[in-house]
Amino acid sequence: MIFEDVDLFYSSAGEEVLRMYGHDPKAINKQGRVYRDRAASSPPVGLFYRGDYHTLVVAPATSNTVAKMVLGLSDSLVSNVYAQAGKCGIPSIVLACDTEPEMDTPAPDRIVKVWPRKIDLEHTHKLATYEGTTVVENPEKLLSALKIRLDEVKEAEIDQSNDG
């Protein structure tokens, strides 16, 4: 499935990790805009106030980012965008990294077994209870959640055009 009109918001760490895995952050999104975490005040959050977006996807969300989301901290581009999306009533889909007590996770050169801490799992479970937030555990579930959300958006557009 190809998604059009997608803008990317990269944290500094996210951009760094993409490069570690052999991806060029500039090449991933050829059609949409790309925002990088380079300013203290995260200016791109204003796009959420303008109504430019109907959905926020945070993928992947590290245990650090999930903890910030749960605690309401907005001190990075990603955590700030999540907070502002919520304040604007824009649904979020979060692909959390730490979802199971024992997991296999890809490292740049191999699969590694990890055991997320109890606090990381608690934060992931708590985030899943937040209004307007869907937490998914893997890329396949992310794709399913995106399809459901896009169907909701299309249905709302049809309803709006019928109301006239």
Outline the secondary-structure elements.
Elements lengths: L7 E3 L1 H9 L4 H4 L5 E3 L9 H4 L6 E6 L1 H9 L5 H11 L4 E5 L6 E4 L4 E4 L3 H10 L5 E4 L2 H25 L1
Parallel strand pairs: 1-2, 3-4, 4-7
Antiparallel strand pairs: 5-6
Helix pairs in contact: 4-5, 4-6
Provide an overview of this structure.
There is one protein chain. It contains seven helices and seven strands. With 164 residues, it is an alpha/beta fold. The longest helix is centred in the last third of the chain and has 25 residues, at 139-163. The radius of gyration is 16 Å and the shape is globular. It starts with 7 loop residues before the first strand and ends with a helix. The mean pLDDT is 88.
Key features of this structure:
Rossmann fold; 3-stranded parallel β-sheet; 7 helices; 44% helix; globular
